[in-house]
Design brief:
Layout (H helix, E strand, L loop, with lengths): L5 E9 L1 H13 L5 E6 L7 H9 L4 E7 L3 H7 L5 H14 L2 E8 L6 H17 L3 E7 L7 H4 L6 E4 L13 E3 L5 H25 L9
Parallel strand pairs: 1-2, 2-3, 3-4, 4-5
Antiparallel strand pairs: 6-7
Length: about 210
């Protein structure tokens, strides 16, 4: 009806079994489309399943890695094994499957060394894989989040204007281990600028929009 040939499924993290089911339906109905979405790295991606997803028209998936450090991921309660993440990324590398990987630094209790570890991990993977881009954001404390409601668990001694009942995008807070914001931006920009250069370069080479790898 709408003659749409590219679909972006706007979801924070589609479980991998549902990504596979979407691919099955697209192949079954012989839809000639390109599509992409966000998924999760907590399940093992096999070569066969990834090849099926690629055949369905999805040659790029996006993921929230958050941290490449297992301790920090456990602190966030992500439920993700870094060993599984690495296995999945190796599968993507073999298939030249494109992906966007998001990470976050500055989580309360995270050390500067752990932030560098995540940045180096992401930078290395981006550098080794043409179809991969990544970005790093800085943690912000939002109202009614678990960290906001349980600050002591994360070494937060006080939250500025914590008695305000309305939503604020970012509350400032005090923590003994907090790394200065400017320093975190330096770490994040190492990866963000690397990906930006990659996207611009690809855009100059592939004119007229997104190109399928099929």
């Amino acid at each position: 009806m709408y003659r749409c040939n590219f679909i972006y499924l706007s979801d924070e993290a589609v479980p991998f079994n549902k990504v596979a089911k979407i691919a099955d339906l697209i192949v079954e109905k012989k839809l000639n489309i390109l599509w992409t979405t966000y998924s999760k790295l907590d399940t093992k991606f096999t070569i066969d399943l990834c090849e099926k997803i690629i055949r369905s028209g999805c040659d790029v998936l996006s993921f929230g890695l958050e941290s490449a450090n297992q301790r920090v991921n456990d602190l966030m309660d992500k439920g993700v094994s870094i060993a599984t993440v690495i296995e999945n990324l190796n599968v993507f590398r073999k298939l030249r499957f494109g992906c966007g990987i998001g990470a976050m630094i500055g989580f309360p209790g995270e050390t500067e060394q752990e932030m560098h570890y995540t940045a180096d991990f992401l930078s290395s993977y981006i550098n080794e894989n043409k179809g991969v881009v990544g970005y790093i954001s800085i943690f912000s404390l939002n109202a009614r989040s678990y960290v906001y409601d349980h600050p002591q668990e994360f070494g937060i001694s006080s939250i500025e204007n914590a008695d305000e009942y309305f939503y604020k995008e970012n509350y400032d807070y005090k923590s003994m281990q907090r790394v200065p914001y400017e320093r975190m931006m330096e770490i994040a920009n190492k990866v963000n600028m690397q990906s930006m250069s990659k996207v611009v370069f690809r855009g100059l080479k592939v004119k007229g929009g997104r190109k399928s790898s099929r």
